[in-house]
Amino acid sequence: MAHRVKVPKPTVIKDAKYLAWLRTQACYFLRYGFTECHDFLGSGIEVSHLDGKSRDDRCLPSCPGHHRTNRVSWHSGQKSFCAYYGVTKEQLIAEAERLYAIYKEGL
Protein backbone atom coordinates (compact mmCIF):
# COMPACT_ATOMS: atom_id res chain seq x y z
CA MET A 1 0.00 0.00 0.00
CA ALA A 2 1.37 3.40 -0.98
CA HIS A 3 1.90 6.01 1.69
CA ARG A 4 0.25 9.34 1.16
CA VAL A 5 2.36 12.39 1.60
CA LYS A 6 0.61 15.07 3.59
CA VAL A 7 0.85 18.38 1.84
CA PRO A 8 0.38 21.32 4.20
CA LYS A 9 -2.57 23.54 3.38
CA PRO A 10 -1.57 27.02 2.28
CA THR A 11 -1.92 29.85 4.75
CA VAL A 12 -5.10 31.82 4.16
CA ILE A 13 -5.30 35.41 5.35
CA LYS A 14 -8.44 37.29 4.37
CA ASP A 15 -8.90 40.88 5.52
CA ALA A 16 -11.54 42.83 3.61
CA LYS A 17 -11.04 45.96 5.76
CA TYR A 18 -7.33 45.96 4.93
CA LEU A 19 -8.04 45.62 1.20
CA ALA A 20 -10.47 48.54 1.46
CA TRP A 21 -7.79 50.57 3.25
CA LEU A 22 -5.23 49.69 0.56
CA ARG A 23 -7.56 51.13 -2.08
CA THR A 24 -7.30 54.52 -0.31
CA GLN A 25 -3.50 54.57 -0.63
CA ALA A 26 -1.35 55.86 -3.48
CA CYS A 27 0.05 53.46 -6.02
CA TYR A 28 3.02 51.71 -4.40
CA PHE A 29 5.11 52.09 -7.53
CA LEU A 30 4.53 55.85 -7.72
CA ARG A 31 5.79 56.32 -4.16
CA TYR A 32 9.01 54.56 -5.04
CA GLY A 33 9.77 56.59 -8.14
CA PHE A 34 7.94 54.65 -10.86
CA THR A 35 5.94 57.52 -12.32
CA GLU A 36 3.89 56.04 -15.15
CA CYS A 37 0.76 55.77 -13.02
CA HIS A 38 -2.67 56.42 -14.46
CA ASP A 39 -4.32 57.04 -11.10
CA PHE A 40 -2.21 58.34 -8.25
CA LEU A 41 -4.80 58.13 -5.49
CA GLY A 42 -8.49 57.54 -5.31
CA SER A 43 -11.17 55.35 -6.77
CA GLY A 44 -8.92 53.85 -9.45
CA ILE A 45 -6.45 52.23 -7.04
CA GLU A 46 -6.53 48.45 -7.24
CA VAL A 47 -5.02 45.70 -5.11
CA SER A 48 -2.21 43.56 -6.52
CA HIS A 49 -2.10 40.14 -4.86
CA LEU A 50 1.57 39.20 -5.01
CA ASP A 51 1.37 35.61 -3.84
CA GLY A 52 -2.03 34.21 -4.72
CA LYS A 53 -5.51 35.36 -3.81
CA SER A 54 -5.43 33.56 -0.44
CA ARG A 55 -2.94 36.01 1.12
CA ASP A 56 -4.40 39.48 1.65
CA ASP A 57 -1.31 40.35 3.73
CA ARG A 58 0.75 40.09 0.54
CA CYS A 59 -0.92 42.86 -1.46
CA LEU A 60 0.19 46.27 -2.63
CA PRO A 61 -1.91 49.20 -3.81
CA SER A 62 -1.38 49.87 -7.49
CA CYS A 63 -2.86 51.90 -10.28
CA PRO A 64 -4.63 49.97 -13.06
CA GLY A 65 -1.57 50.37 -15.28
CA HIS A 66 0.88 48.73 -12.92
CA HIS A 67 -1.67 46.13 -11.90
CA ARG A 68 -2.99 44.99 -15.28
CA THR A 69 -3.15 47.41 -18.23
CA ASN A 70 0.41 48.63 -18.97
CA ARG A 71 2.52 46.72 -21.46
CA VAL A 72 4.61 45.74 -18.43
CA SER A 73 2.17 45.09 -15.57
CA TRP A 74 1.90 42.59 -12.73
CA HIS A 75 -0.68 40.58 -14.68
CA SER A 76 1.26 40.68 -17.95
CA GLY A 77 4.06 38.71 -16.31
CA GLN A 78 5.61 38.84 -12.87
CA LYS A 79 9.15 38.05 -14.04
CA SER A 80 9.18 40.72 -16.73
CA PHE A 81 7.55 43.20 -14.34
CA CYS A 82 10.21 42.62 -11.68
CA ALA A 83 13.02 42.79 -14.24
CA TYR A 84 11.66 46.04 -15.73
CA TYR A 85 11.40 47.75 -12.34
CA GLY A 86 14.56 46.24 -10.84
CA VAL A 87 12.85 44.49 -7.94
CA THR A 88 12.33 40.89 -6.94
CA LYS A 89 9.04 39.26 -6.04
CA GLU A 90 10.52 38.56 -2.61
CA GLN A 91 11.24 42.27 -2.11
CA LEU A 92 7.68 43.17 -3.06
CA ILE A 93 6.26 40.53 -0.73
CA ALA A 94 8.44 41.83 2.12
CA GLU A 95 7.16 45.37 1.45
CA ALA A 96 3.57 44.12 1.38
CA GLU A 97 4.01 42.30 4.68
CA ARG A 98 5.63 45.42 6.19
CA LEU A 99 2.68 47.53 5.03
CA TYR A 100 0.23 45.00 6.51
CA ALA A 101 2.09 45.09 9.85
CA ILE A 102 1.89 48.92 9.87
CA TYR A 103 -1.83 48.72 9.16
CA LYS A 104 -2.38 46.18 11.96
CA GLU A 105 -0.40 48.30 14.45
CA GLY A 106 -2.66 51.27 13.71
CA LEU A 107 -5.84 49.43 14.67
| Biggest pleated-sheet summary | 2 strands, antiparallel
Q: DSSP helix count?
A: 5
The N- to C-terminal Cα distance equals 52 Å
Helix content range of the residues, please? 25-40%
Gross CATH architecture: 2-Layer Sandwich
CATH C-level: Alpha Beta
For the record, the count of structural domains works out to 1
Side-by-side strand order of the widest sheet: 1-2
Structural class: mainly alpha
CATH topology tier name: Herpes Virus-1
Offer a concise description of the structure.
The chain is mainly α and 107 residues long. It has five helices and two strands; from the N terminus they run H-H-E-E-H-H-H.
Q: If you had to describe this structure to a student in words, what would you say it looks like?
A:
By secondary structure, the protein is mostly helical. It has a single domain (about 15-105), classed as Herpes Virus-1, CATH 3.30.40. The protein contains 5 helices and 2 strands. Strands 1-2 form a two-stranded antiparallel sheet. The mean pLDDT is about 85.
List the helices and strands and how they pair.
Elements: H1 16-22, H2 28-31, E1 46-49, E2 59-62, H3 64-69, H4 78-85, H5 89-105
Antiparallel strand pairs: 1-2
